[in-house]
Amino acid sequence: MMISLREARRAQALGSLLEPQGRVHKYDELGLLDLFKQDSTIDSFVHEVLAPVLTRDADKGNMAETLEAFFAAGMFRKTTAAQLAIHPNSLDYRLRMIELALGYPVRSGNTAFKLQLALKLLPLAGMEKS
Q: What is the pTM of this model?
């Protein structure tokens, strides 16, 4: 019973950080992120990975938002472009600008995973998307 109570409290705490608009948070879905305790390690990792894309530029749009949408759409450009309500060529431009800012491609396996993890941990870090 104590374990269930602890998991419910952690689900509520993590859920309020990661999905503040959500009303129901399941520990099964958020438990993986519970492995990452709030300390400077998360902040350092997120800053190292995402700092170049946590800016908003009129031409580039919100780079972190673009990355989130791109990964959520399974890295399919047409699906991502439709979700962002932009032309696929505009998405290609944004992705090129993101890759220039980061200094590496976003589509390769290891870097894609690193970026996705940093985006998921962003609400737990002391940083915000601009």
A: 0.69
